[in-house]
Amino acid sequence: MLALLLVGCASQQPEDPYRESKSQKAAESNTALGLEYMNRGQYEVALGKLKKAVREEPEYAPAHTVMAVLYERIGEAQLAGKHYKKAYDADSGDGDVNNNYGVYLCKNGQEKQALEHFRKALDDPFYVSPSIALTNAGSCALASGDLVAADDYLRRALQVEPDLPDALMNMAELQFQQEKYLSARAFIQRYEATAKHSAETLLLAYRIELASGSRGSANAYKRMLETNFSGSEQAAEVRRISGQ
Predict the structure, then answer these.
(1) Threshold 0.85, pTM exceeds
(2) pLDDT at residue 9, rounded to an integer
(3) CB 212, CB 182: distance < 8 Å
(4) Domains 24-91 and 94-191 share a fold
(5) What per-residue confidence (pLDDT) applies to 39?
(6) What are the residue boundaries of the structural domains of the chain, listed by start?
(7) Rounded to whole angstroms, how far apart are CA atoms 118 and 108?
(8) Per-residue pLDDT, 3
């Protein structure tokens, strides 16, 4: 699971921090409105505001980032990639910009390039969410089959933020793939202490307990999955595994 952080709509610093152009103020305002409308599900209105923002300031990275997220939500992956790249071109050293572009690249099968952007995010001395970029790098490395790199990134993420749910879930998956079932169970238990289960984590917990030989615990996770996510792909997978 990869975590994307929307770039805040605060302004990029102008050359003179005491003077902000009318066009930049307009871009900031329209980006903030676009984000608000997008979060309400009013995508057409949101897109109009974001297009205004980039007309006012073609290199305003937050506008391109929010537009990229919007295009992803409506299934326009190619346009999303175009705007993630424009955000990066406009502010290539920004941690959030690199993290978000990395998430997009990893989801679209470009793991090597994605990891480069996660590393660039971590190089930003002003980046306030290193645990997110480290977790994303770990998740991406795990998806690419590089278990050694995944372990390194995820452990570093948990050193920064020991209760980060996505890092704990990915560590549980990593330990499961390495057949370290007791360790995998421990990470799932840590996850349960910090976050609610999703269908994805319940399936993982079920598989861990089944592999550990604890059929009773596995069945408990199965019941939770059937109760809370009966129509999910994960519930169907559990039924397939259990022969039902």
Answers:
(1) yes
(2) 46
(3) yes
(4) yes
(5) 95
(6) 24-91, 94-191, 196-243
(7) 15
(8) 56
Q: What is the pLDDT of residues 80-122, one digit of tens each?
A: 999 999 999 999 999 999 999 999 999 999 999 999 999 999 9
Q: Distance between CA 79 and CA 54 in Å, rounded?
A: 14
Kindly give, in sequence order, each residue whose CB lies less than 8 Å from that of residue 27, ignoring residues fewer than 6 positions away. Answer: 53, 54, 56, 57, 60, 63
Split at pLDDT 50, 70, 90, the class of 8 is very low
Give the DSSP letter of residue 128.
S
Helices (H) and strands (E) in the chain, counts: 13, 0
Closest CA to 182 of 156, 225, 221, 217: 217
67: tokens are 């537009």
Q: Looking at domain 24-91, which CATH architecture does it have?
A: Alpha Horseshoe (1.25)
Q: What type of residue sits at position 132?
A: I
Distance CA 118, CA 123 (A): 9
CA distances (Å), origin 72, targets 3, 53, 54, 68, 143 = 14, 19, 18, 6, 20
Q: Provide the residue type at 134 as one letter.
A: L
Cα–Cα distance, 65 to 205 (Å, whole number): 34
> Could you tell me the fold of the domain covering 94-191?
1.25.40
Q: Tokens standing for 68?
A: 């990229």
